[in-house]
Specification:
Keywords: Signal
Pfam families: OMP_b-brl_2 (PF13568)
Helix content: under 10%
Organism: Mesoflavibacter zeaxanthinifaciens subsp. sabulilitoris
Radius of gyration: 20 Å
Strand content: over 45%
InterPro entries: Beta-barrel_OMP_2
Largest sheet: 8 strands, antiparallel, barrel
Shape: elongated
Protein name: Outer membrane protein beta-barrel domain-containing protein
Oligomer: single chain
Length: about 230
């Protein structure tokens, strides 16, 4: 079911790109102008709905970039629908240890008396953002206000976890417990170059996983800056 959803959105995106690039407003000056078709973002990643005893530590980062097809829907071209494709790389520093025993993945909370220097997991994601876009821009005006809101779908094509400490270092790749399909709500707002960005995850990072007999229903919240390029 997850892969069917991903395939549906990818095919929809491809269909949009295949359409002829004709202006819906042939009599309007600068009728072909579009905005913000490339994006680059940096975020601080927070874990939401953490199980008892699980805490974040150090800095958890995210880097995001991609292309969005800007499709104006009004005569002024200051309202648009954006459909894109991009990549996202994320790390999460916390005290939830992921280990492996006889090819079975186990989750446990690291005790406070354990000496360790690093414990984090990583995700690499293909993103499909869909946005409703409002801005005060004009064809030859580069500093303007914008509010973009929508939903973002992601396919986790790579993941790993890394632990460095007592009694031994642990590194695991391609963990089946990760939810391969991620989705959440997005908001970007700001003026000119600097734009606040928020992603609020709606489904768990891990699929059917437990720690201390409690389900791991953690979602992620990404807060940071988004930069747009014409």
């Amino acid at each position: 079911m997850k892969f069917r959803l991903i395939l549906f959105f990818i095919l929809s995106y491809t269909s949009l790109l295949a359409q002829e690039e004709e202006s819906p407003f042939p009599n309007v000056t600068d009728s072909l102008y579009r905005e913000d078709q490339f994006y680059l973002g940096v975020t601080y990643n927070l874990l939401n709905n953490k199980p008892n005893g699980v805490n974040q530590n150090k800095f958890s980062s995210g880097f995001h970039f991609g292309f969005i097809r800007d499709m104006p829907i009004n005569k002024k071209r200051n309202k648009a629908i954006g459909v894109g494709l991009g990549l996202s790389f994320n790390s999460y520093n916390q005290n939830l240890l992921i280990s492996e025993n006889n090819k079975e993945i186990n989750f446990s909370v690291i005790n406070d008396d354990v000496n360790y220097s690093k414990n984090k997991f990583y995700t690499s994601i293909v993103e499909l953002p869909i946005e409703f876009r409002w801005r005060t821009s004009k064809a030859k005006e580069y500093n303007f206000w914008r509010i973009y809101t929508g939903v973002k779908f992601g396919y986790v094509f790579s993941n790993s976890s890394k632990y460095e400490g007592e009694p031994e270092n642990i590194r695991i790749k391609q963990i089946d417990s990760f939810n391969t399909l991620q989705y959440g709500l997005t908001l970007s707002a700001g003026y000119s170059t600097w734009n606040f960005h928020l992603y609020y995850g709606l489904n768990p990072i891990f699929d059917n996983s437990n720690v201390n007999n409690n389900p791991i229903d953690m979602t992620d919240i990404k807060i940071g800056l988004m930069f747009y390029i014409l």
